[in-house]
Write a structure and sequence with these properties.
By secondary structure, the chain is mostly helical. It folds into two domains: 2-172, Fumarase/aspartase (N-terminal domain) (Fumarase C, Chain B, domain 1), CATH 1.10.275; 181-470, Fumarase/aspartase (Central domain) (Fumarase C, Chain A, domain 2), CATH 1.20.200. It has 18 helices and six strands. It has helices at 12-21, 29-48, 72-82, 93-108, 116-128, 145-156, 165-170, 174-205, 215-219, 223-235, 254-257, 259-280, 306-334, 336-339, 359-372, 397-429, 436-448, 463-470, and strands at 2-5, 24-27, 87-90, 135-137, 289-291, 296-298. The strands form three sheets. It has a two-stranded parallel sheet. Strands 3-4 form a two-stranded antiparallel ribbon. Strands 5-6 form a two-stranded antiparallel ribbon. Strand 1, helix 1 and strand 2 form a beta-alpha-beta unit.
């Protein structure tokens, strides 16, 4: 299946397919026409000798210096090279591909003044599997100058660029947006896994299912809460916990009782950032802007990607309590006074064995690290002195996206521990029936990790369970 780029309707699903599954990309015919019309405006402006930032002038504090027609080729070449200040490790191939498809879609909209040949070269690189080396660090998220310069240098060093094209290649947020798209997709999958592991915790604890009574979302109709109650109810369909008197407690600890509310708040934050991303994937995020219908080029700051950066911060803040609660439920299951089961979920009472008790330390370490990644970054400003004080704002969008990706990875490991502990507790408690969804989850875990019996040691490797989480527990 191919992805058609029009400049106006690229979706998260399509970015993921191109970045991770290698789907082919095609430029829409009208996109070629849009780019050609915008380029004609640029050529007219250049011919009239108008001062246009980065097209007929230098950039940043050198904007007062004119760039003549004879100097364009040298200016473009030097602009790409001078902005190659990236640091750190290379970006993963999927991140570079996500950036490429976002950049190509931005060009396809006809709001920059690049020729169609540049978009065609980007599409060709995607379809041929040509992935330039792009370094992860060095962008402040006020256009991704450093990673974009790496990308542009890798694909266009030997390509003659026309007036303004070097600037439009580097002066955009394709890298931040591509990185964010993949992190958000992974967060969405993790949220689904958190519902499954949370439901299995309820089975393992012998919890009171009044927490997902239909009146809960009806009387507090946040969309996220409604979704969470619906998901948990479906996962627990058929469970013996629904029977009168099945619950061990009138009211369980808050991390059990508040499961739908906490997961619902993550859903609400995810919905918000998905809406922000949907706009950003198809927005003009550069400078200057070609207004074709007015046949002019205007200076703007659409490269300020604060709406997406703040949304990423919001999602991490919402995710932190969900991961903390998942770890706390796991800890409660390991403690006999809370679970009513052998301490550490050992095979039987009276053993000197640890059972799964030491997984508590692993869970603590993972959760503490994940929570630290929730700190917002979109309000940071290290200095106002760059470029004579002109470049006095930053969004740190790449860091916001990278931290979400790292937080999700830790979250996958937290859920893996949670699932193994819950499966052990379920086996020890021996409920009459599990729900349809929770039984499926229990069976999948048991295919990877057996019951820890008397004399057995803690499972040494939970990566197979993490792979289950990454697959959506399918």
């Amino acid at each position: 299946m191919s992805v058609l780029l029009t400049g106006h309707d690229l979706t998260l699903e399509e970015v993921v397919r191109v970045a991770r599954e290698g789907d082919q990309v095609v430029l829409a015919r009208n996109a070629i026409e849009q780019m050609s019309a915008a380029r004609a405006v640029v050529e007219d402006v250049v011919e009239r000798g108008e001062a246009v930032y980065g097209v007929t002038t230098g950039v940043a504090s050198r904007k007062r210096v004119a760039v003549t027609a004879a100097e364009v080729a040298d200016f473009n070449r030097r602009l790409l090279r001078s902005h190659r200040v990236g640091q750190g490790p290379d970006a993963p191939r999927e991140v570079v591909r996500a950036s490429l498809v976002r950049l190509a879609n931005g060009f396809a909209s006809g709001t920059t003044g690049v020729r169609p040949q540049l978009a065609e070269r980007l599409v060709g690189a995607l379809n041929d599997g040509d992935t330039p080396r792009v370094r992860m660090l060095g962008s402040i998220g006020q256009s991704d100058l450093a990673p974009n310069a790496d990308l542009a240098y890798g694909l266009f060093e030997d390509f003659p660029l026309a007036a303004g094209e070097a600037l439009w290649l580097v002066n955009n947020n394709a890298f931040s947006t591509g990185l964010a798209a993949l992190a958000i997709a992974d967060a969405e999958r993790l949220l689904g896994a958190l519902h499954v592991s949370g439901a299995l915790d309820l089975e393992a604890f012998g919890a009171n299912l009044s927490i997902i009574h239909p009146e809960v979302p009806r009387t507090r109709p946040f969309r996220g809460l409604c979704v969470a109650v619906e998901r948990l109810t479906a996962l627990l369909d058929g469970s013996s916990l629904w029977e009168p008197g099945a619950a061990r407690n009138l009211q369980d600890p808050l991390t059990f009782r508040g499961l739908p509310q906490v997961l619902g708040s993550v859903q609400d934050a995810l919905d918000f950032v998905l809406a922000q991303l949907a706009v950003e994937l198809n927005a003009f995020s550069s400078n200057p802007l070609v207004v074709t219908r007015e046949r002019q080029i205007v200076s703007v700051l659409n490269l300020d990607v604060a709406p997406l950066a703040a949304g990423l911060d919001f999602l991490r803040i919402a995710l932190a309590p969900a991961l903390t609660a998942a770890n706390e439920r796991m800890m409660k299951l390991l403690q006999g006074p809370f679970s009513g089961l052998p301490d550490g979920l050992a095979a039987r009472e009276g053993l000197h064995e640890d059972g799964l008790a030491e997984l508590g330390n692993a869970g603590h370490a993972l959760t503490a690290e994940a929570r630290l990644l929730a700190q917002p970054v979109s309000f940071e400003l290290a200095s106002t002195t760059q470029a004579e004080g002109i470049e006095d704002r930053m969004t740190m969008a790449p860091l916001a996206a990278r931290r979400l990706s790292e937080m999700v990875e830790l979250g996958e490991r937290i859920v893996a521990v949670e699932l193994v502990v819950a499966a052990q507790a379920v086996d020890l408690r021996g409920p009459a029936r599990l729900g349809k969804g929770t039984k499926r989850a229990h069976d999948l875990v048991r295919e990877q990790v057996p019951f820890t019996g008397e004399g057995d040691t803690v499972p040494p490797d939970l990566e197979p369970v993490r792979s289950l989480v990454q697959s959506g527990l399918q």
